[in-house]
Specification:
By secondary structure, this protein is mostly helical. It has nine helices and two strands, in the order αααββαααααα. It has a single domain, classed as Hypothetical protein af1432. Helix 4 packs across helix 8 and helix 5 crosses helix 7. The chain binds fe (ii) ion (2 copies). The site of one fe (ii) ion (FE2) has 5 residues, from helix 4.
């Protein structure tokens, strides 16, 4: 587990695993709405798309290692913050952003993509324990933890590392999405 966390986005991860990962998310990364997440600053120097890719990729690696549903983890992780407002400037109609954005993200994602039960749970439970009901699946726990891990890393450690992170993330995207 620690090895995976330390590998993050660098070359320690086998190329075939990166290719497998790309295949899992290729329809999502070619979607205009997913790509528009690049327009929103999420944590300091990182966009919402970068954050979602960080969470998705690490969750995929961990679930793959544990023999869990890594495809659902990759897809749910990529869509976990699928909302389209600046949370620093806009207050959602339905209340506090931290409580309500998981359900907004799930509604948005379900309108655009066909989601399985694990993916739905991943998206709507990713803020637990801030939100009340706990995750139902192991994959949801993985994504929930990776969301916090990546958020902390993006805010604290990698504030000046955007260029490196961006290049590494681009390596994960299908060729057609590389011009993000
Ligand atoms: Fe979130
Ligand atoms: Fe997040």
């Amino acid at each position: 587990m620690i090895e995976i966390m330390e590998a993050r986005f660098d070359e320690k991860v086998d190329l075939n695993i990166k290719i497998e990962y790309r295949k899992c998310i290729s329809d999502l990364t070619q979607n205009e709405m997913v790509r528009s997440l690049e327009e929103f600053t999420h944590h300091r120097n990182f966009t919402r798309l970068q954050h979602c890719l960080h969470v998705s990729y690490l969750s995929y690696l961990i679930c793959r290692k544990l023999g869990l549903d890594s495809q659902s983890a990759a897809r749910g992780g990529l869509l976990h913050d699928f909302y389209f407002y600046d949370s620093h400037a806009v207050k959602p109609d339905r209340g506090n952003h931290y409580f309500c954005h998981p359900s907004i993200a799930l509604e948005n994602a379900a309108r655009v993509f066909t989601l399985n039960e694990v993916e739905k749970d991943i998206i709507v439970k990713h803020m637990w324990p801030v939100t009340k009901s706990p995750p139902k699946y192991k994959e949801s726990y993985v994504v929930m933890m990776m969301d916090k891990y990546c958020a902390a890393g993006e805010v604290a450690k990698y504030g000046s590392g955007r260029a490196r992170s961006r290049q590494n993330l681009l390596d994960l995207l299908p060729q057609s999405a590389v011009n993000l």
